[in-house]
Amino acid sequence: MADVRAVQVVAADAGTIGEPSVNISIFAVFVLITLVITFRASRNNSSAADFYAAGRNIGGTQNGLAIAGDYLSAASFLGIAGAIAVYGYDGFLYSIGFLVAWLVALLLVAELLRNTARFTMADVLAFRMRQGPVRTAAAISTLVVSLFYLLAQMAGAGGLVTLLLGVSGEAAQAVTVVVVGALMIFYVLVGGMRGTTYVQVIKASLLIAGALVMTVWVLAKYGFNLSSLIGGAIESGGQQVAEPGAQYGATGTSKLDFISLGLALVLGTAGLPHVLMRFYTVPTAKDARRSVVWAIWLIGVFYLFSLVIGYGAGALVGAERITGAPGGVNAAAPLLAFELGGTALLGIISGVAFATILAVVAGLTITASASFAHDVYASVIKKGQASPDSEVKVARLTAIVIGAISIGLGILALQAGLNIAFLVALAFAVAASANLPTILYTLFWKRFTTQGALWSIYGGLISCVLLILFSPVVSGAPVNEATGKSTSLFQDVDFSWFPLNNPGLVSIPLSFFLGWLGTKLSKEKPDVDKYAELEVRSLTGIGAEKAVPH
Amino acid sequence: MTPPTDRKLLTPEEYRQAQDSPEFTELRRRFRRFAVPMTVAFLAWYLLYVLLSTYAHDLMATEVFGNVNVGLLLGLGQFVTTFLITTLYVRHAGRSTDPIADEMRDRLEAHEFGTAHREEQTRG
């Protein structure tokens, strides 16, 4: 009975649920509060260290929350809940991969990076190499990863808008994306890294609180018994949702795809530029450690919530209604919120989801613009002679350009009904292929050379992007009977020859291999002095960038 | 903001000397003794989980209690091990590597490594 009523509500509002005005006002309150905070943060925003790294005086705990804010994107909230609601167990892999991946960052990367680099990922990659080529390569891969990630966030914003704000025309959706993009440019320009960090902290707290409410609510409906919750999901979605294979178990190829996804998830995090950049906002390596530990606990607990939310959506809303809703799979969490708490809870949850997208997009934008201004403009074009002021000016300009690009991408992404978690997984694959091998080789392999770094970065980046281009993600996926559309980006054409949706299984090992081969074949002698400096600095913290006193 | 010149506070010889020192060798050994085997272990355990989910469907679908099956328990086990390794790492770093790193940093800031090196050279 309840099902029928809810379907009628959905139908009556021509695709929207809840009360758009409530959703919009809650979102507006968040925007207002964060704008005030951003303004206050902007008072101390003069130098490059302020703009890029919040003066390096964010506390470890605060930064842990901000990392969780950066990391728990729309993919984690909407995408994972949706994947679990529709595919059950197979969706759970996203949470596990996204979480375990943090151990790579904690054990091997975070502290060493904080000790050796200044603002960007390229600082450490180019540390003992020829600066120009390696910085350029690292900046290009930073931009590509950030754009993939932005695409996913904007796709999420588009789907959410359709569902929640009652905007359904293409023009109106485009306007919403423009508003999101403009807001994010404003946060970055005015607030810099400190403003962005505060936005992340607030957003992470709201998101985790919202997920906690939904989790307790769902569990209460099932007598706080996980087994009966899963029983409910099985009743609505069939036995398969409790078992592996609902999404990836069909053929040998799809099984390989599952493994490829798993590999990309676990190795991607420690190569994500916007996550790495957060390590520079704290005063010391010990604070970097503390913030990663906080992030791991927050993210882990959040993913446990999302398991309950996902199965709850599967049980209480049902997979058919989720995939049939505007926004598709990504609509599971909002639909569940409506089912549980009606208009009010839906308004809160969708406001939180919007805030999530906005904050992550701001974090990505500042990373990409820092990388361009610091690595390409100041180091390569100006050969290190740029004044810090002009560098920050270029960073602000770049933020506007990237904002404009992501608005354009977002409008395009509205058309594609891809799962956001899946899109983000592609960004993870690029990060794991292009960045992680070089980061690890640089930190731990004495003989690693410039040629090895370039082969690994470009080899991983190009192979990864090409394989995505010729995969069923872009063209040639079979037509889904329910929607009458193919899941590919382009309908009606097929130029795919690579069978896997996620390229990680091929491109990650290839990049590690190319890094090794490029080094072995290079005539250049590794710089032993620079390696001594890197190693001593990374482990002892001598010479690490200090916090800016205010 | 720290001026860029301040960052070059040690000479290449000092870094080389510090890198060759027994305490740094010990610091590196202690860091790697934890990080490397632990990384191998958690990656292997994670990949085992992914492979079991893919190729051992029936095992993972075996119900343990109610509707909770082996696959779900192993998945939750990944959360437990992640939290556990995090805690172990923090304890290891605090007890084992931080003291050496802090002491070495103080001595490097006082330029003790470079001078020791020069004294040895003049004596030799």
Please characterize this protein's 3D structure.
The complex is a heterodimer of chains A (550) and B (124). In chain A, helix 6 (89-116) packs antiparallel against helix 13 (285-316) and helix 9 (170-221) crosses helix 13 (285-316). Chain A has a single domain (19-540), classed as Sodium/glucose cotransporter. Chain A has helices spanning 2-12, 20-41, 48-53, 60-71, 74-87, 89-116, 121-125, 131-164, 170-221, 226-237, 252-268, 273-276, 285-316, 319-324, 332-381, 388-413, 420-434, 436-444, 450-469, 504-520, 528-540. Chain A starts with a helix and ends in a 10-residue tail after the last helix. With 550 residues, chain A is mainly α. Chain A is 74% helix and 0% strand. Chain B is mostly helical. Chain B is 84% helix and 4% strand. Chain B is elongated, with a radius of gyration of 24 Å. In chain B, a hairpin with a 2-residue loop joins strand 1 and strand 2. In chain B, strands 1-2 form a two-stranded antiparallel sheet. Chain B has one domain. The interface between A and B is large, with 61 and 56 residues.
In short:
The complex is a heterodimer of chains A (550) and B (124). Chain A is mainly alpha-helical and 550 residues long.
CATH class of chain A: Mainly Alpha
Which secondary-structure class do the elements of chain B indicate?
Answer: mainly alpha
Q: CATH topology of chain A, which one?
A: Sodium/glucose cotransporter
The proportion of residues in beta strands of chain B is: under 5%
Please outline the helices and strands:
The complex is a heterodimer of chains A (550) and B (124).
Chain A lengths: L1 H11 L7 H22 L6 H6 L6 H12 L2 H14 L1 H28 L4 H5 L5 H34 L5 H52 L4 H12 L14 H17 L4 H4 L8 H32 L2 H6 L7 H50 L6 H26 L6 H15 L1 H9 L5 H20 L34 H17 L7 H13 L10
Helix pairs in contact in A: 2-9, 2-15, 4-9, 4-13, 5-6, 5-13, 5-15, 5-17, 6-11, 6-13, 6-21, 8-9, 8-15, 8-16, 8-17, 8-19, 9-13, 9-15, 9-16, 10-13, 11-17, 11-20, 13-15, 15-16, 17-19, 17-20, 18-19, 19-20
Chain B lengths: L3 H4 L4 H9 L1 H34 L1 H5 L1 E3 L2 E2 H40 L2 H12 L1
Antiparallel strand pairs in B: 1-2
